[in-house]
Amino acid sequence: MKIVGLTGGIGSGKSTVAKMFRELGVPVYDSDSEAKQLMTSSSKVRNAIINLLGEAAYQKKELNRPFVAEKVFKDPRLLQKLNAIVHPAVREHFKEWAKDQNAPYVVQETALIFENGAQDHYDCIILVTAPLDVRLKRVMERDGVGPKTVLERMKNQMDDGDKVDLAHFCIENMDLEATRKRVEELHTKLMALAT
Description:
Radius of gyration: 17 Å
Distance between the termini: 9 Å
Largest sheet: 5 strands, parallel
Helix content: 55-70%
Structural class: alpha/beta
Order of helices and strands: EHEHHEEHHEEHHHEH
């Protein structure tokens, strides 16, 4: 079974592309939602986060997302330390999940493949891109935040131009029909690679 990484900057439309792969019957692992789950359900992860950020990181046994975001997106060192707790836990969880899938290939949707130097974990990587102004608008609408907040988050991600050379395939996600067509093309290629 082939392991495909699906990545892209915030607001590029990774989740939209992931949904299209799911509709084609491909098992897709959503690292972001699984990470959120593990931050609450895994006592090991939870205790490490409390040690890093303090008791206020959790409220009523749930992750205090606004508090955590406020802390880490302003301090790259803290963000790095948080990622060093969460990413290995997600990696292990993904490997267990992948073992249970019965498909020629699976997709792991994850934002920071290149930033974490994790490209060697994948047989191939698909990069989703969109122009900066489009990404900014999407995230502001989705999260109800201002441009300053979005740009602060974007600073923690590599520039798309640097990622294009590292990815095996690219999808420019501007027009849904064109994106769907590209996903179908890649699905055909990946099925051929996996057999």
